[in-house]
Amino acid sequence: MDDTIDNRTQYITYYRKPKREARKIFYFDYTLLIILVIILAFGLVMLYSVSSYMGNLKKDDPAYYLKKQALAAVLGFILMFVMAKIDYRKIKRFNRALYWISFFLCLAVFVVGTSKNNSSRWLVIGGMSIQPSEIAKVAVIIYLAALIADSGNLLSNKKNVWRAFIYMIPIIGIVGVTNLSTAIIIAGIAFFMLFIASPRKSVFVEIFVIGALGAFLFAVAGWRSDRIKIWRNPEKYDKGLQTLQGLYAIGSGGLFGKGLGNSMQKAIVPEASNDMIFSIICEELGIIGAIGLIILYILLLWRCLVIAMNASDTFGSFIAIGVFCHIALQVILNIAVVTNTIPTTGITLPFVSYGGSALVISLMEMGLVLSVSHGISIGSL
Q1: Counting beta carbons within 10 angstroms of the beta carbon of residue 85, is it exposed (0 to 12), middle (13 to 18) or buried (19 or more)?
Q2: What is the Cα–Cα distance from 318 to 216, expressed in whole angstroms?
Q3: Where are the alpha helices (DSSP H) in the chain?
Q4: What is the rounded average pLDDT for all residues in the chain?
Q5: What are the distances in angstroms from CA 180 to CA 44, 216, 308, 362?
Q6: I need a labelling partner for 173 at 20 to 30 A (CA). Which of 31, 32, 218, 320 fits?
Q7: What number is the average pLDDT over the span 91-95?
């Protein structure tokens, strides 16, 4: 009788053991999510502080712009969690389709696009204004991540690196016609993703020199050449008002700022709630507040790198790397423009500047990164 019980116990133990060993606990980057929520909450508070004057003046509602941005944030969070729940590997098969859909959406801007601030960059779909160039950034990240994952050792060949970059030229060119700054960001994303993937680093010197020359020639052609003149001597031109007032805002903020809601320049600086919001942050919260925001961005980028280094496959790793490049480039270029380090361009500050479609698409992008994090096994960390 005792032998029978012992045999049954051994059988049950033997039968259940493989199930316990086969079980995997998967990871979800709550740290990334918390940092993102903090940045977004900070952005909403600053947006209300910056836009309340104009909202009251133009719309008779101080919270008008805040309400629109908050609605976009809610929609973006819903779509972000949907993307986080989807297995990112399933998106890989659609990488070419996403690339060409975004290309034709950018092309459609020339035919049925709507204009804002003398720029035709938007499509109205279902009553919502959408900027196709924002979709193009995500499409390029997904396409290049799939290409790098499938290339194996092919990117060690110089010609293949050039071929991959040349494939980006149609979408960079079509976006660059109406939005040079976004085209530069897309080119930067492609450059750094391929640079990280390829062991042949010398070819990127050629790509950088030719790309920089092309961007310079494009910038000095026609009306864009005025921006370089204004950048060099903003005080001599009427259009230098934005740059000068932004610098005044930064300078008047000092170390600790004037206090939340106490900005004087928000009523003067053009696009104060969009491209120039960083200058008002400096005015109201001072250098300390600006550094605090930059630290939050650094933490966000750090989490993207952690996910990239621990991703379960190359495709997921380069999705996280692509998003890292996108956010880093946009933050750096926005701050460079506001401080007059580079000529003025229409680059927004991610998750902080006013803009519904950009916020929704950026949050969906972060959803992809969270999806990659969900595929990481705890044992691999």
Answers
A1: exposed
A2: 29
A3: 2-22, 30-59, 64-85, 95-112, 132-151, 158-166, 169-178, 180-197, 202-220, 225-232, 241-253, 277-310, 314-338, 356-374
A4: 84
A5: 27, 11, 29, 19
A6: 320
A7: 92
**Ordered strands of the 128-130 beta sheet:** 114-116, 119-125, 128-130
Q: State how far the alpha carbon of 344 is from the alpha carbons of 43, 65, 126, 231, 249, in Å.
A: 22, 24, 32, 7, 16
> For position 126, what pLDDT does the model report?
64
Q: What is the pTM of this model?
A: 0.87
Tokens coding 172: 């960079």
Q: How many percent of the chain have pLDDT more than 70?
A: 87
Give CA–CA dist 327/297, Å, rounded: 8
The arithmetic mean of pLDDT across residues 82-108, rounded, is 91
List C-alpha distances in Å: 237 to 181, 222, 246, 338.
Answer: 21, 17, 15, 17
| Cβ neighbour number for residue 48 with a 10 Å cutoff | 20
Check whether 9 has a pLDDT greater than 70: no
pLDDT at 374: 84
DSSP 302-369: HHHHHHHHH-SSHHHHHHHHHHHHHHHHHHHHHHHHHTTSS-----PPTTTSS-HHHHHHHHHHHHHH
Radius of gyration of the chain (CA): 24
Q: Give me the count of residues in the chain.
A: 381
- Residue 380 has a pLDDT of 53
The two tokens of residue 299 are 């933490």
Helix or strand or coil: residue 258? coil
- Cα distance between residue 378 and residue 27, in whole Å: 6
Residue predicted with more confidence, 40 or 8: 40
Rounded Cα distance, 271 and 51, in Å: 10
Backbone angles phi, psi at 297, to 5 degrees: -65, -40
Per-residue pLDDT of 232-248, as tens digits, reads 877 877 777 888 888 88
DSSP 27: P
**Residue scoring higher pLDDT (75 or 241):** 75
